Give the backbone structure.
Amino acid sequence: MKKARYPSTQAVRVLKDADVSFTVHLYDYVEHGGTRVASEQLELDEHDIIKTVVMEDESRSPVVVLMHGDKEISTKELSRFLNVKRFIPCAPQTVTKHTGYIVGGTSPFGMKNPLPVFLEKTVLESEKIFINGGKRGFLVGIAPSVVEEILSPTLVRVAV
């Protein structure tokens, strides 16, 4: 039997180095399709697909927010939590500059520059989550505790 092939990304290397269990989920990436497309193709609950959003405040300091696929980020609540004026999503080229990944393939694991990570607290209630594996059309399934263990995120409640 042939072993399933999947991308050997920086994110995969981080997960393997941490010796954590993960599953591999490949799907046909659709530009601007977001987590809805992955959910439909992989027959997963969109709530358990976690998007990696790179944002910056008014002084252009970047942060990563990990959010349920079926929710949005309240930039007002995030700004209030971090005591800054505002947050906006980074432009695609800025995301690549900070993380080493392209938009649609951004993983919180193995970023080029370590950034502060904020995790929507309710993500920890899921039994298993699916998060970008560092390439478009590639998710890894992990226990939410893996995110805590590897990234030490700050827990927030900023979902709307």
